[in-house]
């Protein structure tokens, strides 16, 4: 299976065609080798040999009808192998670290969450710990028959070339995050890439959309920081590399100072800490500072049968302070309701600017905003209705993400899967014995 020794053009042709065939298998339901050949415009013999390579590498399975003899005959129905290569998503946020392993179909199979205050803990310790959590998730995935291969790390900060240039809420500057995570992973041959967590959350939101849902939207992720991802026709718009820093859009120019050095940023009114402070809730004690990190784990082990998608869904756990804020608001507590109305208003002001500038068909709020939506949305909608002039604002253009705080880690795992689907030859060459 090793491509070594072949002329460059032949290798690049093989690489291109393997990806073409694998994507066709992913897009089709129960297509045979002959059907795939017809759809991609290659000969049946060529497709048959490519399918065989994908099958031997564990990326594709072939269901052969019982009356058809041995495995590998051209009439079998092809599908992505749910027990083969897997993408691993790791999210390091300010008050938790999460890991998700997704199989080739994109279904989440293992999820681990560790609640810990990562502020002031240091990048090295935080990323080593995240690497160890990812190694545990990979071990659980292997026991479930999966082969984790690609790790995507999401961080709430500015990321360039797998390095975190600045993550104000983690107090990280110029951190080689990919390298540090690899060290925590131990002796595992896993490729690692790093991205901004709101970008990955927008990708996660896109991947979880039902067929036929729009492919262009602005996703806004509420956490201790606030990030956004602009999805345009299914592709993330990155601008010069750092698009989406909506948390540092100015709401009130002479407002309170922000961790970024500017004043009156959206984050100072609608970020998790600002919300808790305004609701007179202690964010420090509520995040259980000083106690041992709580670990919640869900490992889903399933076979390849029809029940595979009946996943054991772990409840999307909000952090304790956010749950308390929601409970107080539900009881009608004045300070909680007022804090959420103020945050909704600030969000509405910032989002109106974004909508007037970009006119996205939809705005999706996620992260902690999904949990707090009932109390944020009224004042948020008022601002959008009053301020959006780029087209009539309809209330149904604002949606709440169904993924809550899981969007980023799900998107990170999905990004790994997409990388395998885009270039299966890299995976095959990595896993094949060197000849
Ligand atoms: Zn700021």
UniProtKB/TrEMBL annotation:
Chain positions covered by the region annotation Disordered: 297-316
MF-aspect GO terms: kinase activity
Gene3D superfamilies: 3.30.420.40, Winged helix-like DNA-binding domain superfamily/Winged helix DNA-binding domain
UniProt keyword Kinase, yes or no: yes
Alphabetical keyword list: Kinase, Transferase
InterPro entries: ATPase_NBD, ROK, WH-like_DNA-bd_sf, WH_DNA-bd_sf
Pfam families tied to this protein: ROK (PF00480)
Keyword rRNA-binding assigned: no
Record-stated family: Belongs to the ROK (NagC/XylR) family.
Full protein name: Sugar kinase of the NBD/HSP70 family, may contain an N-terminal HTH domain
């Amino acid at each position: 299976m090793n491509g070594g020794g072949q002329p460059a053009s032949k290798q690049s042709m093989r690489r291109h065609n393997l990806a073409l065939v694998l994507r066709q298998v992913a897009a089709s339901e129960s297509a045979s080798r002959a059907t795939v050949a017809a759809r991609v415009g290659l000969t049946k013999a060529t497709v048959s040999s490519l399918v065989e390579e994908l099958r031997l590498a564990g990326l594709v399975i072939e269901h052969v009808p019982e009356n058809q003899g041995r495995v590998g005959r051209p009439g079998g129905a092809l599908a992505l192998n749910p027990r083969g290569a897997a993408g691993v998503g790791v999210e390091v946020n300010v008050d938790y670290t999460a890991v998700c392993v997704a199989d080739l179909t994109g279904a989440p199979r293992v999820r681990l969450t560790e609640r810990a205050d990562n502020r002031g803990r240091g990048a090295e310790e935080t990323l080593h710990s995240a690497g160890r959590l990812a190694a545990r998730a990979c071990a659980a995935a292997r026991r479930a028959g999966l082969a984790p291969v690609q790790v995507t790390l999401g961080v709430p900060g500015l990321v360039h070339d797998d390095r975190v240039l600045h993550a104000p809420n983690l107090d990280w500057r110029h951190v080689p995050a990919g390298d540090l995570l690899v060290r925590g992973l131990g002796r595992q041959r896993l490729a690692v890439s790093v991205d901004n967590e709101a970008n990955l959350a927008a990708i996660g939101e896109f991947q979880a959309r039902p067929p036929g849902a729009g492919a262009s939207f602005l996703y806004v992720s509420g956490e201790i920081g606030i990030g956004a991802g602009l999805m345009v026709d299914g592709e993330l718009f990155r601008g010069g590399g750092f698009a989406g820093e909506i948390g540092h859009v100015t709401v009130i120019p002479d407002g309170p100072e922000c961790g970024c050095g500017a004043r009156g940023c959206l984050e100072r009114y609608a970020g998790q800490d600002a919300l808790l402070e305004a609701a007179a809730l202690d964010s420090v004690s509520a995040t259980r500072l000083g106690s041992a990190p709580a670990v919640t784990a869900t490992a889903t082990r399933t076979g390849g049968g029809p029940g595979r998608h009946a996943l054991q869904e772990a409840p999307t756990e909000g952090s304790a302070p956010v749950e308390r804020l929601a409970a107080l608001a539900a009881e009608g507590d004045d300070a909680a309701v007022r804090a959420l109305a103020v945050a909704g208003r600030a969000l509405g002001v910032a989002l109106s600017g974004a909508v007037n500038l970009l006119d996205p068909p939809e705005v999706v709020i996620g992260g902690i905003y999904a949990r707090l939506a009932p109390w944020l949305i009224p004042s948020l909608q008022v601002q959008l209705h009053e301020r959006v002039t780029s087209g009539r604002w309809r209330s149904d253009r604002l949606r709440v993400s169904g993924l809550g705080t899981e969007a980023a880690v799900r998107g990170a795992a999905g990004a790994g899967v997409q990388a395998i689907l885009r270039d299966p030859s890299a995976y095959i060459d990595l896993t094949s014995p060197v000849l």
